[in-house]
Write a structure and sequence with these properties.
By secondary structure, the protein is mainly α. It is 45% helix and 8% strand. It has a two-stranded antiparallel sheet with strand order 1-2. Strands 3-4 form a two-stranded antiparallel ribbon. Strand 3 and strand 4 form a beta hairpin. The chain is globular and about 65 Å long. About 7% of the residues have low confidence.
Length: 132
């Protein structure tokens, strides 16, 4: 009897752990930063987060550099942790503002991937900033 309860405990624990991990990673994220982009010329970007997770490591995009090295611990990448948002570091005081950070990270990677001859994402403004 105790063996059966232990197995059910493990099944329940597995469901809770994997469920919380999956819920912590949204399929799409709307990059809509009203405070940073007050005079917006283009609509917000719907970022396909899940599509990127298939081919990239978390630290390929998320970073915290110290002495030129990405020291971010992936365990910090929990939904709701404001410290891991791009806007936390790339604000008006930063040497690289939020808009430039997004463009460098996204377009830079897409251009590099295109140069390498692999399938890649958008490289033009209207391909990410879609109206309607």
């Amino acid at each position: 009897m105790k063996k059966r309860q232990f197995v059910w405990f493990l099944v329940g624990l597995f469901v809770v752990v994997t469920g919380s991990i999956l819920q912590g990673q949204p399929e799409k994220i709307v990059l809509d930063h009203d405070k940073a982009f007050k005079k917006r010329q283009r609509p917000p970007v719907v970022f396909p987060h899940e599509a990127h997770m298939a081919d990239l490591s978390c630290t390929d995009c998320h970073h915290r550099y110290e002495k030129g090295r990405n020291v971010l611990d992936e365990s910090e990448l929990e939904e709701g942790n404001a410290d891991i948002l791009c806007s936390h570091c790339h604000d008006r005081r930063a040497s690289v503002g939020l808009r430039e950070a997004f463009h460098r990270q996204c377009i830079g990677c897409h251009r590099q991937t295109h140069t390498e001859g692999a399938r890649t994402g958008p490289r033009l403004c209207g391909e990410c900033h879609r109206r309607g």
